[in-house]
Every structure is written in C-alpha cells, then in structure tokens.
Write a structure and sequence with these properties.
Radius of gyration: 26 Å
CATH topology of the largest domain: Rossmann fold
Largest sheet: 8 strands, mixed
Shape: flat
Order of helices and strands: HHHHEHEHEHEHEHEHEEHHHHHHHHHH
Distance between the termini: 30 Å
Number of helices: 20
Number of domains: 3
CATH architecture of the largest domain: 3-Layer(aba) Sandwich
C-alpha cells in the first residue's frame, strides 16, 4: 500500500532540492505535483485541495533555518499534515458496558466477519478479555459457518441461532448469554449487502437501537478507493458509527480511502487489516502511517511486533547457549518461527527506514523459509543438537529427505556456522573493546 504515492511525493520534494529558500513559486510547483500524486492515489478532490492549501500556507509562513534545507522543511510540514489528515493520533476502543458490545456494519465482502474474528483474537490475547462472537447474518448460512470456523480457529465461542431469522432477537439473546456465562465483550457480526439498500439500513439501525453498543464500527475494503468513502458517508448518516476499520491494506490499493475517510465522515480510523491471518490486525496510528507514506519506515511498530514475540527468560537461555558456543539448529528454527509470527516479510522489511523504497519491485515470498525449515526438519535430533557431526553422507541424506540439493544443504550449514561465530563474538565482546565490531557509515 502507498508505494506509488510514496514514490510520487518523493519526486515532488526533489523539485525543491538545490533551492536556497522557500518561495511562492517553488512551493506552488512542488504542491501542484503533490496534489496530482494525491489524486492519483484516489484521494477525494476536495480533501487533496484543502491539504495542499494548508501545506502552502504553513510553508510560506516558515523561516528556513540555515541548517535545514527547503526540501527537508517541506517533508516535515507534509508529514505533520498527513498525520493530521488521518486523525492526528490513535483512537482506542471505549468498552465500558458489562458486557461491552461492539456492532459491525458494512457492505457484503468488506471483511466484517474476518475482522470480527481478528478483533476477538486481539481482545483475548492482548487485552485479557473474554469475547463472545455473535452471528446475526440470517440471510447467508455460509456467513454463519464462516464465523463458526473463525471462532474455532482462535478459541472464541460463537453464539448462533440457526432457526431464528430475527437478527435483533439473536443479538439480544447473545447479550443475555454473555451475562449468564461471564463474557465481557460481545461482538455482533451483521449482514451485509452488495449495495446500500433501505432494508439493510433499517435492520442494522434496529439492532443498534435495541442493543445500545459501546462501539459501532464501519468495516470497509480499502481496495474500493473513493467508493469506500462514499459508502462510509451513507452509513454514518444513518448509524452515526464510532470509527472506521480499513481491511485489505496489504493489497494493491492506492491508499486514497485512508487519506480521505477521516475528513469526509469526521470519524477516526481505529483499525487496519494487514493480511489474512487472525493476528494481522493493527491499531491505526496516523503518525506512523505518515512515516511510511514518506518512506521513513515504522520502527516503533516493528519493535512492538518483536516485543510481542519476545520472551525474556528464553532470551537469557539463548544468550548463555551462544556464549558457550552451544547455539544449535533447534534454536535456529525457533528464531525463524518467531520471525514468521511477526507478519508478512515484505511488510516487516518496509518498516525499516529506507528499505521500503529499495524493495518496491522486489518480491519477498512469505515461503522464503520453507526450504530452510525442510532441511532442518530432515535432520535427526542428534544432528540438530550437534551440527559438527554433519558429514558428507548425512548431508546427502538430508538433501534427499528435504527435496533440496546438496549445495543448498551445504550453503545453509555454512551460513549457520558463520552466524553462530558472529553471535558468539557479539555476546562475548563489550562495547568499546577491540573485539566489539565498529560500524561506520
């Protein structure tokens, strides 16, 4: 997401490179290109115009310090305004009821059911909540079955009434069930339609009136661009929802919905879906998204994801093994599993400043670790624990068992040995000592 916009904005800022100061002429040229970049990203025309007008006013009112170049100042102003355009700061869910109730709304195919499962999983694993999913799409048996499968996958119960065709009654009964069995959050998945229609609007309005949810969320597919913004406006006029959820932001989307929707409906984007897995859900941080749009990466989110997989006791155990040169293939495969849990590899790499642009045309396969895993799992427990015994015949057997070549096996073992030596050196050395590597630009 945003790759094309990032590239276009980068080209726009280059118009100011070499300029000694900001003037009305060079700012106008730069912002003309910025406006085109936003429109090409499917940003609402009025939003794009208002944005560039604000940036222009702020840029012309700035005195450029001798240590700051005009292009750097423009990047700073655009960054701050992009963050403000998307809401300024992250907005948390407000769950006060007992049980707290979250109502889902949106068109069919927007990803409501999958998001319901992702949200339940997030509340369960990160917020220590006990959620209950509720199936209120009485028109599509497949939707009820999908929610049941999702619930089973994440270990969250699903309330359903297969014979009852009244979604208001089902929602009310689910809340009673939650109170009786001690669930503290009820997530109500409602029916969607292929287009906005009066029956759907009346139905979901009736559900909202009956259950009085703490949060009403509008789920929208970011791939639909300006259609997403128009649909959000229609839903908000009828439901007055609390926040927006953008799904499929990992797809080939230009990002216009993310940049326009906050201004058009005056409601915050609360979550973004970044993949198909149940843990591929992020709280939306406008400043971090602005960083990524401008190619600055998102180190904070990367560190947060790493910390979620970080086990302090395991790290201490590993450090001791490295110091004694006992780091083996069992430890190696465990580290790979932790990296995989952090999410899509290309997305993780794009969070590192400067790397996103470099990887724009590079395809990073999420199955990149498959051959490595196959080789390691083809080793015997003794071989994984003691790599020194991996002689020629053992390597041939491993290659055959893993469906790889002897060259691939040799390459992995060589890389493993080099990694182990480097890790041991870094663990043994102290900063400032001669052994400690010195990294210079």
């Amino acid at each position: 997401m945003f790759e094309n916009l990032s590239e276009r904005l980068d080209r726009s800022f280059k118009l100011l490179k070499g300029e000694g100061k900001i003037t009305e002429i060079n700012v106008a040229e730069t912002l003309k290109d910025v406006r085109k970049a936003l429109l090409d990203a499917d940003v609402n025309y009025k939003v794009a115009k208002s944005f560039t007008d604000t940036v222009k006013a702020k840029a012309l009112g700035q005195n450029v310090l001798t240590s700051v170049k005009p292009s750097q100042l423009m990047v700073k102003i655009v960054h701050d305004e992009l963050a403000e355009l998307m809401g300024g700061k992250a907005t948390e869910l407000e769950l006060k009821g007992n049980p707290a109730i979250i109502l889902m709304s949106g068109l069919q195919g927007s990803g409501k059911t999958t998001f319901s499962g992702k949200l339940a999983n997030l509340l369960k694993t990160k917020k220590n909540k006990k959620p209950l999913l509720t199936a209120c799409d009485v028109y599509r048996p497949a939707a009820i079955e999908q929610l049941r499968v999702v619930g089973e996958q994440i270990g969250v119960p699903v309330y359903m009434e297969l014979e009852n065709k009244n979604p208001v009654e089902i929602a009310m009964n689910a809340i009673r069930e939650a109170r009786a069995k001690g669930y503290d959050v009820v997530i109500v998945d409602t029916a969607g339609r292929l287009a906005i229609d009066e029956q759907m609007m009346k139905e979901i309005a009736a559900i909202k009136s009956a259950i009085q949810p703490d949060e009403t969320l509008f789920v929208v597919d970011a791939m639909t661009g300006q259609d997403a913004v128009n649909t959000a406006k229609e839903f908000n006029e009828r439901l007055d929802f609390n926040g927006v959820v953008l799904t499929k932001l990992d797809g080939d989307t230009r990002g216009g919905a993310a940049l326009s929707i906050r201004t058009v409906v005056d409601k915050p984007i609360k979550f973004v879906g970044t993949g198909e897995k149940m843990d591929a859900l992020d709280i939306f941080h406008p400043e971090r998204m602005a960083d990524r749009i401008l190619g600055m990466g998102d180190i904070v989110s990367l560190v947060e994801r790493a910390q979620e997989q970080y086990d302090e006791e395991e790290a201490k155990r590993l450090q001791k093994k490295i110091a004694k040169n006992q780091f083996d293939f069992n430890d190696f495969i465990a580290q790979i599993q932790q990296i995989k849990k952090m999410g899509n590899l290309k997305e993780l790499a794009s969070m590192i400043p400067g790397v996103g642009k470099a990887l724009k045309d590079v395809d990073i396969d999420d199955n990149a670790f498959k051959s490595i895993e196959a080789i390691i799992y083809s080793m015997t427990p003794a071989e994984r624990t003691n790599p020194a015994i991996l002689n020629g015949s053992r390597r041939q057997r491993i290659a055959k068992g893993s469906g790889t070549t002897i060259q691939e096996v040799n390459k992995l073992i060589k890389q493993f040995d080099e990694t182990r030596k480097m890790m041991r050196m870094l663990t043994a050395a102290k900063p400032g000592s001669k052994k400690f590597p010195s990294f210079r630009r």
